[in-house]
Amino acid sequence: MIDGYDLPDEAPGEYIPLREDRGLAKAYRPNPLPPKLAVSSEIVEELTSAAYALGQLDGVAGEVEQRNAIFSSFVYKEAEQSSQIEGTRVTVSDIRRYEMGADKIEQLEASEDELDDIREAKNYIQALSEGISHFNEVGRSWKNIDQSLLKSIHETLMVGGRTDEDDLMPGEFRYDHGDFVVIKEEESWKKPIRFVPPKPNMAHADLDALIEYIQSGGDYPTLIDIALIHYQFETIHPFRDGNGRVGRLLIILLLISGDTLAHPVLYLSSYFRQFRDQYTDLLLNVSEKGVWEEWILFFLTGIRRQAEEAFVRAKLLLVLRDRYKTTYATAPTSVSRLTEGLISKPYFSVNEAAEMMGMTYQSASNAIEQLVADGRVRQFNDQRRNRIFEAIDVTAIIEYDYAQLPEPRDVVDRDTVDLPLDIGP
Asked: For labelling alongside 276, which of 26, 101, 243, 377 has CA 20 to 30 A away?
């Protein structure tokens, strides 16, 4: 945050003086959307590439009958990465085990705080599911995004988790309670305060204006509008806590409700986490300098990159599924059925495997033993009872190093794709 109140004419907002007895000198108030943008050729090029990558990713859905079977792991990956941006060490396996009933500290080998973090990550998945259900019920349109939806998402996200605040106020806007929010620098050697969002009464009007812009359908191409909306939401900071998680989840809901993406398969939080400092610096540069182009290019690059990455991982999962069908074509029915379910449920108990296969507990247990012997499955915990198993190949594809993944053009035709050497039978 710069010293003083003077901002250049290009800045899309202004600093407002605050009471010194609060220890705060000023708060930033953004102008309503839309800003006047000069859409450069670089933005047009990146916009085209991002839109193509999203279309390619959506097209993978046409290659599978049970789409959730392929894409469910991506939702968990987004929840993991969004949680880690907040400073946790939650992993996909933690969330999966928690869902399976390993909700005690000794079962997860976690502290009480870590268990709260896992609950928050699980809440992210639930909030996303509820948001999508909302649009399935009332229609996929930006017209159906309002304050009530944001409050409902926030309530689901924040209940039962951990935060630095004593009172989460889940599902309540901070301006209803006259609360100020201060965003501090993480590094102690910098100035302690990085940014102060609008005063409570101003935040109310600013959020109303943002919702009005969203419901109008926006003024720019969809992906550019979403970049603008994300900046505006994070700048307004309407909640006391959890704004980052709501803002990242809102990106996915905007893509889905705008029919830009059919399924929640984009884990953009991974990109924001990897380039976190650049992300926060660019948002501040928009506020203080009006540097929209750099922010929009950064955002579009993230959309393209993550869409390409998700496309490649989805294709590799389909190749793995095909490889399993070939390898276990003559295996006992229990084994082939189990391999069919591994992609949609890479962590499972014997009882869950039996239910997934539609067979007896003993048949499931025998099939698991076979796949353990083949190196396709391993026991994830050390318990004799309530054993949890992991589909090694599936989780390896989801976690495979981004830099080592094939290029999207190399996985278009599944029949010619080779899995990485250490994955698959």
From this structure: 26
